[in-house]
Sequence to fold (300 residues):
Amino acid sequence: MDTATVPSADADPDTCSAQRGRTTISDRAVGRIAARVLTEVEHIGGTAGRILGTAPRGEGSGASARVTAKVTGDSVAALDVHLSVAYPESVARATEDARTNLVHRVAELTGLTVNRVDIEVTALRSPDSPSRRVQ
Amino acid sequence: MTNPATTNTAEHSTFGAGSTDRSAGAPDASTAQESGQGSTTIADVVVQKIAGLAAREVPGVHELGGGAARAFGAVKGRIPGASASAGQGVSVEVGQRQAAVDLQMLVEYGVAIPDLAKDVRNNVIDSVEQMTGLEVVEVNINVNDVHLPADDGDGADQGSGDRVQ
Fold:
């Protein structure tokens, strides 16, 4: 995992401009990146909008996983994830897979260190519900 | 370059009014470079536009500006004859011989943001320093959102903003 800190503290010989200014990434940007990353993970699905415990539009309604990100101190991000798991799969394995992917890819794309990924599995998608094709 | 010291103040006051609120507090909204035979002044908006165009040149930068500025820019871009401002999402602070730039960016999903930020910073610093002669002390970059490939419903007209100029 590349822990290149975002405030460009890396000693880059070719650019003295690396010290000139800071880079910050908003919580929203990190959250959206994380949600997009989850669509690349197998057996992980989105979380449907719920009203009184029921999902009016169905579990497989194509919504992406809900991720709330919190960036602290410019270089550390914590993720709070709501997702669904495809039914016959092991929830433990699927979520562990999701966590590994998130930590790795979010660090790669944003340069932030992901120190915590809290996952809440909101549903098990039944096999007959349409698998997501896009996103 | 060292020509008319009689820079018309009327023009500068309009520039100052149109530029970012940060410049409003500065005693002089434009910068002066004395050379014995006259002074060259560079207004804030000049630096703002140069920085905006330089940042947009870097692949991976989808758009500049916060959510509200982008929405307004998209509306403005549809009006014939008007175009989204080059200085959108850029705020600058220009002194006598130094300038500082703050950027709000929307980046493409898939690019490594630290690398992108470095490229943008280099390009902005090079462009501003080369064109204005001001020393750029810092370029602060805030990535406020990412553009996902699935967002491309209205991506076509947003993209055209990058092409012109």
Observations:
- The CA atoms of residues 54 and 162 of chain B lie 11 Å apart.
- Chain B has six helices and six strands.
- Helices of chain B lie at 9-18, 21-24, 44-57, 67-78, 113-132, 155-163.
- The longest helix of chain B spans residues 113-132.
